[in-house]
Amino acid sequence: QTVKRRVQIFLLVASTALSIILYVLIQTVEHPVQVFVLAVVLPVLSIILYLLTQLSIPTILTYPWPSPSPSCERKTSSSDLKTEVVLAGSYNPPHYGHLEMITYLARRYKKVHVVIGMNPNKDYAVTPVQRAKLLERMVDAKLAEEWKCKVKVEVVSDYIWRYAKSNGAKILFRGIRTWEQDGLEEQSLHKLNLWGPLVVGLTWPLQTRYMEGKPEYVGISSTSIRNLCSTKKKEECLKALESFTPKEIVSDVYNAYGSI
Description:
Strand order of the largest sheet: 1-6-5-2-3-4
Order of helices and strands: HHEHEHEHHEHEHEHHH
Number of helices: 11
Largest sheet: 6 strands, parallel
Radius of gyration: 22 Å
Shape: elongated
Number of strands: 6
Low-confidence stretches: none
């Protein structure tokens, strides 16, 4: 956090310096073409500087995650309670680690869009729609009424950053085990979420934040659940699954993944 704060200060100073330089140069340059080039090049350099910084120093929420502000708990006015966020993932299948993150975000923010990305040209053993239904059952079974009404599960075939923008979300969250384990894989998606809005959407990128999992659930992965369903006998699998996913959806998870 200290490093990130220093980078933010640096960006502020650098942007201010670029603005001053631009103003001085415009005052001293007489040719209109040169003025136009300066007016375009310097802001572009500022944007590139910002994006490179975001790529090199991502925002990572380590566990324990920051507690929701007291005003959130009292349900009074706060910036978080006015903010909608997206938690994107494959949820293939959903498990306790996902549930913990969804619960935290629902307590902290106005609305949580739990998004499953879908490629219309890809065949899935368990479709995104099936996974969305599992997620909805899990949320309905485990979240308190005051929090579950703030969670919306969606399957999205478009860019997730575009869905977030069109639905008024301000922050894009990604759940990870740790940055050391998943950071390399996440970098390509992080680049897409930074450059995509600028190049494709001609709009400013969203904040992207990475949530490291609760330590007791870091060992749980969707891959291990799929392997369990495909290798164990039904009764043995159902019993084992209760350690990975809420018992309310254990049978549904087995029915979806046991035949893969």
